[in-house]
Design brief:
The protein is an alpha+beta fold. It is 20% helix and 55% strand. An eight-stranded antiparallel barrel has the order 1-2-3-4-6-7-8-9.
Length: 201
């Protein structure tokens, strides 16, 4: 007698408790297996991500370095040189302070002091990318010689991103693209493209 194919006296099939129980058991087993696999896969991803974060940057890491910057905005461009200091407040979150001096061009020189927060996303042990946001104080000085001189400064907001390439445990190459939105009367909007070197200690 086949317990999975029971029929009534008139020859029609009737509900089979054994078939229903077997189907529900297989269904529950399938979902249980799938959920268990998903949990294992998720845990492996988390462990991998944490290991990348650990080897790439750790809380308390500090570095300092220099950079060259090309700045452009409002139909005016110039070249600058500067220095920066970085500190990891957590493994992925890093604070950066920088100063950049832009050389005189067409009678005008500029400077920029910025403070940014960066969120590191390690791609490998050697390479990490990050978005950034922060604020800046920018100033400019116009020197026309005998015709006189003048200066102005103002606040702005920074948005952008960058990448670090670790040559070894102490030296990293840095690349960054930052857009400054001027605030108030000093509404100078500028795009900055920087490349430099950072020394870890």
């Amino acid at each position: 007698m086949n317990v999975y194919n029971l029929t009534n006296a008139n020859g029609t099939k009737k509900n089979n408790p054994a078939r229903t129980l077997a189907y529900k058991t297989r269904k529950i087993s399938f979902f249980a297996c799938t959920w268990a696999q998903a949990r294992v896969f998720f845990c492996l991803i988390m462990v991998f991500a944490m290991s990348l974060s650990y080897v790439s940057a750790q809380q308390g890491d500090m570095s300092a370095g220099g950079h060259l910057t090309f700045g452009s905005g409002d139909e005016y461009s110039n070249i600058g040189i500067g220095a920066k200091f970085r500190y990891n407040v957590t493994d992925p979150i890093r604070l950066e302070g920088s100063f950049t001096y832009f050389f005189k061009k067409d009678f005008m020189s500029m400077w920029d002091i910025s403070a940014n927060i960066q969120w590191l996303f390690p791609v490998s042990y050697q390479f990490a990318v990050y978005p950034l946001a922060g604020f800046s104080i920018m100033g400019m000085k116009l020197d026309l010689g005998d015709w006189g001189s003048g200066s102005d400064n103002g606040f702005g907001l920074n948005f952008g991103g960058g990448a670090d390439f670790n040559l070894n445990d102490q030296i990293a190459l840095t690349f960054e693209l930052k857009y400054r939105v001027g605030l108030g009367d000093f509404d100078l909007n500028r795009l900055g493209i920087s490349a430099g070197v950072a020394l870890k200690f």
